Amino acid sequence: MFENSYGVAATDEGRAKVFGKDFAAWARPEDGDESIWEDATDGFSPGPKGSPMPPRTPLLKAVLEDLREFEEPVEEGSGIKSLALGALDNSFLVGDKGIEVVRNFEHGIHGKGMSVKFSGGSTNFSTPKKALLMRAETNMLLMSPATDGKPHAKGVHQLDIETGKVVSEWKFEKDGADINMRDITNDSKGAQLDSSESTFLGLDDNQLCRWDMRDRRGIVQKLVSATESPVLQWTQGHQFSRGTNFQCFASTGDGSIVVGSLDGKIRLYSKSSMRMAKTAFPGLGSPITHVDVTYDGKWILGTTDAYLILVCTIFIDKDGKEKTGFSGRMGNRIAAPRLLKLNPLDSHLAGANNRFREGRFSWVTENGKQERHLVATVGKYSVVWNFLQVKNSHHECYQYQEGLKSCYCYKVIPKDESIVASRFMHDKYSVSDSPEAPLVVATPMKVTSFSISSRH
Fold first, then answer.
1. Which side of the chain, N or C, has fewer Cβ within a 10 Å radius?
2. What is the reported pTM?
3. Higher pLDDT residue, 227 or 27?
4. Residue 302 belongs to what domain range?
5. Contact 331, 321 (CB under 8 A)
6. What 3-state DSSP class applies to 13?
7. Considering the domain boundaries, does residue 74 fall inside one?
8. What is Dmax (Cα atoms) for the chain?
9. For 387-437, how does the pLDDT look when each residue is reduced to its tens digit (9 = 90+)?
């Protein structure tokens, strides 16, 4: 497998060539420093009955004892394509015909609000592949892929949610030349709650940058009278030499950035520099299709077609201080990652062609709070892992494994059709009798909320 993945023999020299000396633990996990994983769990509250970790029980029974389900069909013919979760009053279902506004409740999202139809704009406006909430969730940026089937976009439409109108169409431009972007995201994990936010991050195959929506001419042109689109201002960033093949990215609570690549590498950039990665984790042979990071920047979840990879960014510097790989070079005390996989039966039932998509942490935007669960989509399955259990080095899954440790303890939530998105609502919706905010699962024709009860 090593030879097939990397094209070099599975010898010490071959491993050193692929991973480098700093990442010896990725090639030989048994020689890695497991104490990092243990140290990282010290700050957690005790599990049941005072134990430092939750016990292993089938399919996370202790955590997901009672799933209360609330299902609601979407508007006829709308066909959900993506989900934009809000942390305030509303969330948004983005479909072929427009955007449905739904209400956020402690038991999930439901209740039809207004429906915003796609209209306006000097160009053909296809169904957005990305919807990004901004400015205390009063505005939304909509990015549609190019018409030739490529995932890249030439600009974004700015939707005023309160009026339901597209108020501006922005172009991506640098040094007078039009450029494309593959993805956009907020400046930081909680930036969509900031009413004054005017910048956001952009990613292309070989570019990482920050865009500014404050027009230097002082006027944002309205679409109804615009002869040309206002140009987004490139305020910070770097165009890399060909070959980085960036695919996806995410930001931490303080604005540091993690980027996943086609070659499987995961790069960490501090909030102050997009030019040089502080840390670059090697690939394991599979492209990273989606990446997420905890609010504190200590944990990264990368998604590949066949598995999720959980990376710990914590290291101890030469002065004995704990840091993350976003703020310094990690050196050679790097722990081996954990892999999250489906067992063979579930993998078979999920379907041969179904791949892992969009592995995410549950959603917190407050210092000192820790994410509790991980969720990913595989075909008609929404798959949930207990974050604490995955990190526990004494967890039964890991006892007799060699090589990189894989966790197969999860909860499967099956649906009747392929799932578009599975995401946990904001932590403020985790009520007193629940250990977690509701999980929202969207399929093209319905949206389901699962609230997790711990009454038992």
1. C
2. 0.85
3. 27
4. 12-51+60-219+226-452
5. no
6. helix
7. yes
8. 68
9. 988 888 777 887 777 778 888 899 999 998 899 999 999 999 887 656 689
